[in-house]
Design goal:
Leucine-rich repeat, LRR (right-handed beta-alpha superhelix), alpha/beta, 16-stranded mixed beta sheet, about 400 residues, LRR_dom_sf, R13L1/DRL21-like LRR repeat region domain-containing protein
């Protein structure tokens, strides 16, 4: 805690971990009012503020030198990204925290904003409608652990200099509506990176093809959600998109028509079946996507990383592509079949690749066993694996029986 009398430090530039307590001999938000020289301010435990008037007395909007602002509450979410059963939020608590945050609006010069643990039904009014406070210098926004918010604020797309937006853990958001990108003619005009993490119930993203937005977006990360479809507006308008990262995106069955993407990662997408029409794709990482059957119209592919310790054979789509480099991580006995080279059943799936590095794990060593193949050197193939290695390292009898078909 910070003792009372703190307001006398009027030349303070940086203040971290200021805990918002309202009783005893400790400083309250009132004492932040005179600190007009602050550049960095980190406020925590704002759920303890009993009235919005205390927040207003902090006079954040008058701190013209403030560049970085952190507003935090104690999170009400568990490890699964859902509201803890014992941390239920009443309507009265929601209304109170909304009033408090409405009075904590930043000054126009702030460049970095992070909000943690906020549990209001909607984000502060100064984020929903940026006309209330012209945050024209804001470049980075992090929103973490939004326990009760049901939608992303429409006002963000109007911020003229916003370059990086990250939202993590917002279990009540199921739909991202058209207003998120349609509230202005130049929506997200300078946004460079968008990351949406652990929005575990998110299913739908509305963005029609004719709605122009995110023309400078270069990197998009979607993680741990239930998104059924990537919106058509993204592919047609995000003309600068270079990196697309999809991890644990459930229900997504296809990815197609991203002309500018050069690097794509799909990891743990259980329903993904096809990737098509990404003509400039150079690097493709596929990890644990067992239903993926089709790779088409990716003629520029240079590097393919394939990681799956459950597959019994190389995917059939390997016959339809010709990357220059292949890096493979698989189970031990499949690696042995690859090591068989021209006499093995998988030869025609990787023989056209110029350079192959394939590995199987042993304990914590992910690259204990290897197969190295170079097509241009008389199809040279090198490996440290043998049949005795297989039978010593295989613990599952089913795998032994399958292996016997190739020995």
């Amino acid at each position: 805690m910070v003792p009372r009398g703190f307001s006398g430090l009027t030349n303070m530039r940086r203040l971290y971990m200021f805990r918002a307590h309202m009783d005893g001999d400790w400083s309250s938000l009132d004492e932040l009012g005179p600190l007009s020289q602050l550049r960095v301010l980190v406020l925590t435990e704002l759920e303890n503020v009993s009235a919005s008037s205390f927040a207003a007395n902090a006079r954040l909007d008058e701190k013209t030198h403030l560049i970085k602002l952190f507003l935090g509450c104690t999170s009400k979410l568990g490890d699964d990204g859902l509201v803890k059963e014992k941390e239920g939020v009443s309507e009265e608590e929601q209304q109170q925290i909304e009033k408090v945050f409405d009075k904590l609006y930043p000054p126009p010069g702030v460049e970095f904003l992070q909000i943690n643990g906020y549990f209001g039904w909607q984000l502060p009014n100064w984020m929903i409608s940026t006309s209330m406070v012209p945050l024209n210098n804001l470049k980075t926004i992090f929103l973490y652990d939004l326990a009760c918010c049901t939608q992303l604020p429409n006002g963000l797309c109007q911020l003229p200099n916003l370059q990086f937006l990250q939202v993590s853990r917002a279990p009540c958001i199921k739909h991202v509506r058209t207003g998120f990108v349609q509230a202005a003619t130049a929506s997200f005009s300078r946004l460079n990176k968008l990351s949406l993490f652990n929005m575990v119930e998110w299913e739908e993203w509305e963005w029609e093809e004719q709605v122009q937005a995110m023309p400078r977006l270069e990197e998009l990360v979607l993680n741990n959600c239930r998104l059924r479809h990537v919106p058509p507006g993204l592919a047609s308008n995000a003309s600068s998109l270079k990196i697309l990262f999809l991890e644990h995106v459930k229900q997504l069955s296809y990815i197609e028509s991203f002309p500018s993407v050069v690097e794509l990662t799909v990891n743990g997408c259980p329903d993904l079946e096809r990737i098509t029409n990404i003509p400039n794709l150079q690097k493709l990482n596929i990890q644990n996507c067992q239903k993926l059957k089709v790779l088409e119209r990716i003629a520029s592919l240079e590097r393919l990383l394939l990681e799956d310790y459950t597959m019994e054979k190389l995917p059939e789509y390997m016959r339809d592509i010709k990357p220059r480099y292949l890096q493979l991580f698989c189970r031990l006995w499949l690696l042995y079949v690859v090591a068989a080279g021209q006499s093995g059943t998988e030869w025609d799936k990787f023989s056209r690749v110029e350079h192959v590095k394939a590995y199987a794990p042993d304990g914590d060593n992910q690259r204990k066993w290897y197969v190295l193949y170079t097509r241009g050197d008389n199809c040279k193939l090198d490996s440290n694996i043998s049949s005795s290695t297989i039978f010593e390292g295989t613990e599952n009898q089913t795998n032994i029986q399958a292996l016997s078909l190739f020995v």
